[in-house]
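Hey, sorry to bother you again with one of my protein questions. A protein chain has come my way and I'm curious about its shape. I'm sending you its amino acid sequence along with the backbone structure tokens. I owe you a coffee for this, so here goes:
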Amino acid sequence: MELLPIEIIQIKQHKIDQIDQIIKSIYRLIIYSRYHLDDDLLDIYLAGMHNLQELVGIKNAQMEAQSEEEAKEYLHHLKISLDFVIDEIVLHNNFDKELQLFQLLRLVSPETNAMHPNRYRQTLVQIGAHICPDPVLVPQLVSALFYQFQSIPNPIIRAIYFHHELIRIHPFADGNGRVTRIAKNWMLMYDLYPPIFINDATQKKEYISTLGNSFKQLLKQPQQWNEYTEKFFDQELDRLLINAQYLYDSINLIGINREKTLSTK
């Protein structure tokens, strides 16, 4: 396997500009609105983010767990990992080290870590039609990915690129999807973007199909940008755009309600 060359990525700049405009609008509300008190600002942002975290947990638990009991356990571990990520962000720690992969695995999939503590997978795995790299190659591929993705200046593209390539490597025996998505959202949230999540089963199916086709094309032509890889990046941008708008609307509504309350006094 060859990592996707960074220089061939084709960015949908207009979507990134849209996302950035919404994020700026959020901070205009927080900084300039007469209907937000100074000590409310962090609470307003965290309340919006908390709602998104709940959606992340519920949707992922419904679509990945096989039973109600598994869903509860999955959601429990996911909430613990998200709390950990928020604590790290408060301490100004971004996701940029291999060690953090194992930290996330221990939190989100403790059973997998217990089977292979602090180790990458030792067996061949297959995702659909995609045969993941030989386990002997995994450590050097992961190290190369950490070196490579940090040279991408835009945090949104950096996070999506990391997601695409780590899933393709599939470094762990299990829990790869959960670890990868939390790592991606850690990077996004560190730069004050909301997390990306899958909304429903239809999106989940599309997500898996697009990734599988992207991997297939890159196996044939590893140095060429293809329609399926572009489609995956585009879908992730769309999901982030929706979530950014959701966060803006949530925060804006608080100000509108406070304005109404004050005007009736």
User: Anything to note?
Assistant: The chain has ten helices and two strands. The longest strand covers residues 126-127.
